[in-house]
Amino acid sequence: MKTLFASLLLLAVVIAPTQTSDNKKDIVKKTATFTGKVTGFEVGDYVHVKIRNTKGADLSYFIGGGFGLDYFMAAHANKTGTFTVQFVSSYIPEAGGREDIERISNAQFGKVTFRTWMRDQRKKMTNKQISDKYEPLIQKLCAGPR
After folding, report:
1. CA-to-CA distance for 45 and 145, rounded, in angstroms?
2. Rounded to the nearest 10 degrees, how much is the dihedral formed by the CA atoms of 59, 63, 65, 69?
3. Where are the domains of the chain?
4. pTM for the predicted model, two decimal places
5. Domain 26-143 part of CATH 2.40.50.140
6. What is the DSSP letter of 65?
7. Cα–Cα distance between 31 and 104 in angstroms, integer?
8. pLDDT of amino acid 15
9. Which of 85, 125, 136, 145 is buried most deeply by CB count within 10 Å?
10. Segments of the chain with pLDDT less than 70
């Protein structure tokens, strides 16, 4: 009986962290694209990109899509682009659990996609050099400290 209890206890210890981390994985509910222009960034607990869509509505989104997407959008601010927005159930510690959010996961300006732009940047610079180059641009477009 002691062996069975010890085995179950060990199994619970091994499985518990996995269940917790799985519970924190994002769940993408829907994806859509729209056209607009980056008008700036705003800061709360997270940085959000501000985009004016073709109907003139000013929208604010979380930024996903990996390192550098904010820099790519900042470098193309006030230019018309196509944005991919994900509607996501995301674990946000500051909110105390899961929240439904909308985040930009990709962008394209003309024929230039985020992935190709980032690949080209990484051929010339390290991530730190990319940050050093584009962070001042984010600051300039930001409504508040970053």
Report:
1. 11
2. 90
3. 26-143
4. 0.81
5. yes
6. S
7. 10
8. 31
9. 85
10. 1-22, 143-146
47 burial class (0-12, 13-18, 19+ CB within 10 angstroms)? Answer: middle
| Helix boundaries (H) for the chain | 2-23, 69-75, 114-124, 127-141
| pLDDT for 88 | 95
Return the closest-CA partner of residue 82 out of 32, 17, 18, 30: 32
Pair of tokens at residue 28? 């993408």
Q: Which residue bears the tokens 């904010």? A: 70
Q: The tokens of 84 are what?
A: 């991919």
At residue 111, what are phi and psi to the nearest 5 degrees? Answer: -95, 0
Cα separation values, 27 from 4, 24, 88, 94, 106, Å: 36, 9, 5, 18, 17
pLDDT digits (tens, 9 = 90+) for 15-31: 333 334 667 899 999 99
Burial of residue 82, with CB atoms counted within 10 A of its CB: 0-12 exposed, 13-18 middle, 19 or more buried: middle
Q: What is the pLDDT of residue 80?
A: 98
What residues form DSSP beta bridges with 109?
112
- Rounded-to-integer distance, Cα 91 and Cα 128, Å: 28
Place of tokens 């980032």: 118
